[in-house]
User: Fold this.
Amino acid sequence: MTSQAQTLLLFGATGDLSRRMLLPSLCALHTEGLVAEDLRIVGTARSEMTDGEFRNFARDALEKFLPAERRGGMADFMARLHYQQLDVTTPEGYKELAKKAGPGEDLAIFLSTAPGLFKPTIEGLAAAGLAGEGARISLEKPLGTDLASSCEINDAVASAFPESRIFRIDHYLGKETVQNLLALRFANLMFEPLWRSQYIDHVQITVAETVGLESRVEYYDGSGALRDMVQNHMLQLLALVAMEPPSSFTANAVRDEKVKVLRALRPISADETVTGQYRGGASNGQIVPGYDEELGRDSDTETFVALKAHVDNWRWRGVPFYLRTGKRLHERVTEIVVQFKQVPHSIFPGARMKANKLLIGIQPEENISFTLMAKVPGIDQEGMTLRSVPLDIAMPDAFKGTHHRIAYERLLLDLIDGDQTLFVRRDEVEAQWQWIDAIRETWAKEGVLPKPYASGSWGPSAAIALAERDGVSWHE
Assistant:
């Protein structure tokens, strides 16, 4: 699909995601002239609003969440916005929506609704003629709570849209540094020959948050860290690190290689996992309550998980992938650490050798750092003194004059343009759920319960032991 959409239909247009991410992203794309002048944006939600009231809503969102220097085209952007009230469970309402949106050809649909509303929404779109051959649909997570519910959602969407017109969002794939991982691996000769078990000792992927439940109380307690973060974001990062070189930078070529990795993930045993739940403590200089206190009841939902994973193929045989994620941790950080092996023999007597390390920072700062051994300046009479030094590439410094983009800018533009490369295919989603479901079954069978950890820490001590028994320390 290569034709550019003429209308973008936003479901959940008055929600928090729309305020914080979607409307600011679209205004930024408009300001930079990256979308066609005739693109119309039609918002829809249950709230009753006129076009003018929706534009006022959008203006407030842009002034709060979009930097002033990126709002140069805000006045003209408002002219693109239209609104139609809709209860997605009411079939007759889609007729009015179709009138407002125009023909179903060259239509991009962004669906940000509760998973339980996907099916009636798809049925309503199809009945109103909004699922024509030129229409494409984007789905925001969560896409189910397990493999069975995910298949049910995917089947409902597939009843009206073929796979070539389904865009499943994982917003991590829109982040600049995540995309830069592909450039780092496949546009530089120096890394690819070393990107294998002969030279890499292990890989760490950390997604740490300092926040607690915030406004996601009911969703999170029914999900937990494994399904909220590992099933989608972290497995996508793992797949990008471990995938084979695709034949080309096209949607199917990239996604073919990712799904091979996901299918090669070895089933995990209970002793290769650690779960935790935060208790009260200090976070960001403030005293914060524990999970049960925030929730208002006792719960066995995990807010932290650490895993030792293996990709069973030739490239990664024997290389562990350590994954950890959690809430109320010591700091907010998302990063990938590729730890290389030590040199097989040191010719420098007395030197404290450290293995090379590649650090890919995704948030809060986007950067790439590579550590290597170098001589300390000076005259040494008793041998050469070496020290590990970093080579840092801070993305804002390396590319001055560019804006820090919202991840949704890239994804919304690709949806409008019909490029699926940074979106997740159905077989990827199902491979991820198969692996996650097996872990949850193991936890249930073994009676695994989350271990308590203090807010502001790096999680349960058992997570440290998970890595240290292999001689590995988490990067902190």
User: Anything to note?
Assistant: The two ends are 43 Å apart (CA to CA).
